[in-house]
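Lab channel / #folding
Pinned by the channel admin:
"Please post every new chain as: sequence first, then the structure tokens as a reply. Keep commentary short and put observations after the output so the thread stays searchable."

First post following the new format, from NK:
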Amino acid sequence: MNLPETLKYTKDHEWVKVDGDSAYVGITDFAQKELGDIVYVEIETEGEEVGLGDVFGTVEAVKTVSDLFMPLTGEVLEINPDLESEPELVNDDPYGKGWMIKISIKNKAELDDLLSLEAYKEVIGA
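Reply from TO:
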């Protein structure tokens, strides 16, 4: 299982890559494997401020639909445009081409509540 050490994680299986005052967000390799083949990603929150823990979109797999939870309070600056035509990128490259949203970080203190790689491994029993 691919779990980059440079990222932060949530108990809801999102990853966060901080880039200055913004961050990229996606779902972990563990999450995409649990979901199975992803067929659709729906995110309609671009331009909106979304609170910590609120739903920012959904991901639809062959077997299920799962909510996507905001790991930090912030404005959704950008949605990955490639996911509309290629949702399978989330399966193929969850930490690269399969990123979901770019957000502004409104409250940097919330970064301290994200999980380290070691803490996330405990959540998933790895």
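NK: Strands lie at 8-9, 14-19, 22-27, 38-42, 49-50, 55-61, 65-69, 74-79, 101-104.
TO: also worth noting, The first strand starts at residue 8 and ends at 9.
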